[in-house]
């Protein structure tokens, strides 16, 4: 059975109880946090089991076939274990053949289905099926979790979603059809949430969106306000302000989903100054200009190798993470070779790769030259062999260095060691630092605190380090 989530804080009100399962990417996780915050503010309690809940909400992912399968299976489990199920998230927005809603087709007994980012619609469905408890104390109480709301991540790191949707139309992607065009959150709200998170103990803020570099495009970079100060709705101003807010808390700001537009060049000096981590998650997907054009990628005309070189000149510590697709329709062996050369020459620190898989409703399915699955898989393995070599070489350069490590796990105050991450490792997607037991008896490790550590060796994608 999938774990039914229980947030860190619950209200003191009596049941009704809601079970919640959150699947998918960090953007889906932030949707779950918004719904759980609202449920809790209204006095609903959460249940860790299907059986103990009066109703279950499943937040789904609909991006690739495996995610669709997992989501449909989870809805089936929730129906079997509880019977009253509300479905939300990306899969909720997908239609099957004949234009019928996919979730309703596969599970006709669900109570309601919504798309992603639909807190109000989900709450309406909850109210209809499980009336809101009346508690005079709670009804009069302001949201006790402040601007940040409930978080499903560990206390010391949190995702900060700055926008919803996307204006691009990459041919392999159906996200815009599920999440709509770009809508940037007001910069004042984003900064207020960031501050509340730092106040609440967050030591690492992960900025997410579908396209972080496009922040503010939809509102023409309008000027907003934070604490009475005018500030433009623009990535550069956002990063500068986040860095300044994080500084007194000694917290990290990490940027995800940044496209290699010329405007990103201006953000690199902020990294060199320490306002944001020198880490960029740039989903290049490919390197060959013809493949990028067929993919209709944002910034496909940019000279990415030169750009990365310039970024590294301005900020030598910069770590670049990226994702790629091998075996895109029509990809020739020569185009694929271009990709392998790019990963080596660009020195991509961390790379993930999918073999192209046709997603229902994606325009790329119509592109001539679909490659046999064996070729796509074989190219993916060849890609990963090269990318892992590059990654291992770059990782080895850290041996002997002293680095700041954020501790994620440290049983018994770290007496037997622990696990953490440096600025080069985002949670869940990159490697970790395996911390050895401290040499001094007085030295302890605590989750959510930083320690300095001397890197002694590498172990696959991970580092081994001695806390000092
Ligand atoms: S940039 Fe492309 S891949 Fe990313 S969400 Fe937008 S359309 Fe999809």
UniProtKB/TrEMBL annotation:
Enzyme class: transferase
Residues involved in [4Fe-4S] cluster 2 binding: 166, 170, 173
Family indicated by similarity: Belongs to the methylthiotransferase family. RimO subfamily.
EC number: 2.8.4.4
Pfam family membership, one: Radical_SAM
Catalytic activity: L-aspartate(89)-[ribosomal protein uS12]-hydrogen + (sulfur carrier)-SH + AH2 + 2 S-adenosyl-L-methionine = 3-methylsulfanyl-L-aspartate(89)-[ribosomal protein uS12]-hydrogen + (sulfur carrier)-H + 5'-deoxyadenosine + L-methionine + A + S-adenosyl-L-homocysteine + 2 H(+)
GO cellular component: a single term: cytosol
Domain (Radical SAM core) ranges: 152-393
Keywords, comma-separated and alphabetical: 4Fe-4S, Cytoplasm, Iron, Iron-sulfur, Metal-binding, Ribonucleoprotein, Ribosomal protein, S-adenosyl-L-methionine, Transferase
Cofactor remark: Binds 2 [4Fe-4S] clusters. One cluster is coordinated with 3 cysteines and an exchangeable S-adenosyl-L-methionine.
Protein name in UniProt: Ribosomal protein uS12 methylthiotransferase RimO
Keyword check for DNA repair: no
InterPro entries named among the record's database cross-references: Elp3/MiaA/NifB-like_rSAM, Methylthiotransferase, Methylthiotransferase_CS, Methylthiotransferase_N, Methylthiotransferase_N_sf, NA-bd_OB-fold, Ribosomal_uS12_MeSTrfase_RimO, rSAM
Record domain MTTase N-terminal: where: 16-131
Function: Catalyzes the methylthiolation of an aspartic acid residue of ribosomal protein uS12.
PROSITE patterns referenced in this protein's UniProt entry, alphabetically: MTTASE_N, MTTASE_RADICAL, RADICAL_SAM
Cell compartments where the protein resides: Cytoplasm
Binding site for [4Fe-4S] cluster 1: 25, 61, 90
MF term (GO), any: 4 iron, 4 sulfur cluster binding
UniProt cofactor(s): [4Fe-4S] cluster
Record-linked PANTHER family: RIBOSOMAL PROTEIN S12 METHYLTHIOTRANSFERASE RIMO, RIBOSOMAL PROTEIN US12 METHYLTHIOTRANSFERASE RIMO
